[in-house]
Amino acid sequence: MSYLRHISIGRLLALIVGCTLAIGVGAAAIALAARGPRTTPPPKPLAAAIHDALAAPQPAGITARIDFTNHLVDAASLQGADPLLTGAKGRLWASGDKLRLELQASDAAGGAGDVQVLVDDKRLSVIDTGANTVYRITLPNDAKQRGDQQAPQAVPSVARIQQALASLTHDATVSAAQPDNVAGRPAYNVRISPRHDGGLLGGAELAWDAAHGVPLRAAVFASGNRNPVLELRATDISFGPVAAGDLTVPEPARAKVVDLSPPAGSAGDKHDKGGQPHNGLGAVQAKVPFKVAAPDQLVGLRRQGVRLIDLGGSPGALVTYGQGLGGISVIQAAAEPGKNATAALPGGSSLPKISINGASGQELDTALGTVLRFRRGGIDYTVLGSVPPTAAEAAARAL
Predict the structure, then answer these.
(1) What CATH number is associated with residue 321?
(2) What is d(CA 77, CA 127) in angstroms, rounded to the nearest whole number?
């Protein structure tokens, strides 16, 4: 957790805004505190609370119990069960740059096994025991890794933090630092909500320990819902050295390994020899072996751009409509011969099927958005956005 002491203001605010994408991996920063009186810290301006959190002493290690809530996907619409999808209680161990998070399957999970999440400074691994599958992804280089060979960054001043918060409020509503108590520890809680173009996202909350400056709770809310659809909360914790054996777990024998890391040299957008990305319908069409579907408007949203992207070494097209989280993105790629277009969720849960103008597809409807995939005419289409399924389906049928 040493990187929390040297994180830049931009990255700190990005952590708060983006905890919807990092709620599972964000457990690497979770710290839970020992039981005690349910006291709350004194009121403090948000900028000062953030400054004091960054300057707080780093604990030697963390051992904790946690609750993970997941109401993102309606489990009734899925076949199968998994702690990642249904939520679970669990345990957490963390020390330095290593973390182990264990989500324990309930007896009612129909035989689904526990899920282990392992994080170090270079790789994230998810061991899904029930599916006998290991998912791996190489973590990108960040300021922390570059800083390993440099002097530690100084804690930003309260004034600098206040300037960054003022800039953030142009696009989002940010609450004050609310005194709170999480896992028996005095804590501060902040809520951030998009001002416009938020799609189905209602907001996110982050609570951190007032003394140690590390997060105790992260939650994401759907628009119009007062209860979180995703939440990772500390329930019991202690600080102190953690045994090395508690930070790792053996992988299942003969487990299927799925590497989700981007190919070496892949950086998303594809560029020409001058380093400029290929943008625009004409430029992208000249680089892909299929006809790009890019109408000027899609379900009332104007087309914003067409970009050439790298999809595992093969060229693809990304077409965007609308602005902000309420927009829609369409990813298009030539179908790989012999490769099934269907996908499955952790634990073997299958996605509901859907027909798009006679083409068979799959749809994942969540409280925060919709992802829809289908194959037609040798082209794989993925439509996604923080929109209801009716909007995503209408967009797919209009392609």
Answers:
(1) 3.30.200.100
(2) 24
pLDDT of residue 270: 55
* Chain mean position to CA 145: 20
Which one, of 251, 244, 250, 249, lies nearest residue 94 by Cα? 244
pLDDT bracket for residue 264 (50, 70, 90): low
- Is it the case that residue 309 has pLDDT exceeding 60? yes
Q: Which of 259, 294, 316 is the last residue of a domain?
A: 259
Q: What confidence score (pLDDT) does residue 262 get?
A: 61
CB 308 within 8 A of CB 286: no
Residue 142: pLDDT band with limits 50, 70, 90? low
Give me the domain span that covers residue 20.
3-259
78 shares its domain with 130: yes
